[in-house]
Write a structure and sequence with these properties.
The protein is mainly α. The chain contains 14 helices and 4 strands. The strands form 2 sheets. A two-stranded antiparallel ribbon has the order 1-4. Strand 2 and strand 3 form a beta hairpin. Helix 3 runs parallel beside helix 8. It is globular, with a radius of gyration of 21 Å. 44% of the residues are buried. The C terminus is likely disordered.
Amino acid sequence: MTKSIVMQSIKSRLEEFGLPRIIIALFLVVLFIMAPFVDVNIAASLSDIINRFGMNGLLVLAMVPMIQSGCGLNFGLSLGVIAGLLGSTLAMEFGLMGWGGIFGAMVISIPFSILLGWGYSLLLNRVKGEEMTIAMYVGFAAVMFMSIMWLILPYSSNNMVWGYEGKGLRTTITLDGYWAKQLSSFLSFKIGSSFVFPTGMILFVALCCFGMKVFLQSKTGTALIAVGSNPGFARSSGINIDKVRTISVILSTMLGAFGILVYQQSFGFIQLYGAPLYMSFPAVAAILIGGASINKASILNVLVGTILFQGILTMTPSVVNGLLQTDMSEVIRIVLSNGMILYALTRKVGGRR
């Protein structure tokens, strides 16, 4: 009897975790097993996965508020990225460096996040039921509009503007001397010659995840979940649906801004113009692979999805290159990332499909 109960409990947990995630996790384990046989450094690969998790964690977390409020997947994440880019470029323009630089960039990005998130929410509240389609075009349009603005905004820092004319921002701007690796190197430690743990970045992501969990348990967070789960019940309970959705969109946009700033400091560069165009797709794919649906998401979905997505994206090119003895890493990475995004977007509910 006890054995039957245990087996039933295990089966129930496996079903809850979801067959797709089990397959992806097993595939990742197989890649790690194969790695030593094709001269792939496991310690370096594991370090890379952890680093990529930290770089992308907040961008995936930015999906949670909008999903929970019934706004769907945030394909307009580019708006948050743009707010973060404005924060980082203005912080460089003001000469902010070190901790003052990265946190100054975050503070500067907040009003842009609120403004862009508020305008974005006004549009989404008018097109209830079609949010994801509209969001995608809003994100694309915003990136193209900012491609013009990066050329005409009155920046003057020699480290950012084109050298031959003295105006217009460069496509790629280095953060060396400002806040490159500022979070990643904080309390970081090294094991052996290849494994480096970016303690500061992981702690910051963990803090944001904890903050989101606390927020979702608050009165506003509960109202947000109620609106996403049952708008009719929420309305009859006196909840202002449009106001709650607006809060979720602004919060998602702000997390997107913070996310790109964390990404930048780890990467060491600011990338402008068309770079933010498709940043929402990997984040969407990661949270769906983690078990979220278009109307329900959790912190666990963020953590599991980001690790699985980035793990497969890191390990597969290295292992395949070792097997084939040729450099096809970029081709494999494109095929994998787009394949996982396609898989994730065809899912309608969480982990069981």
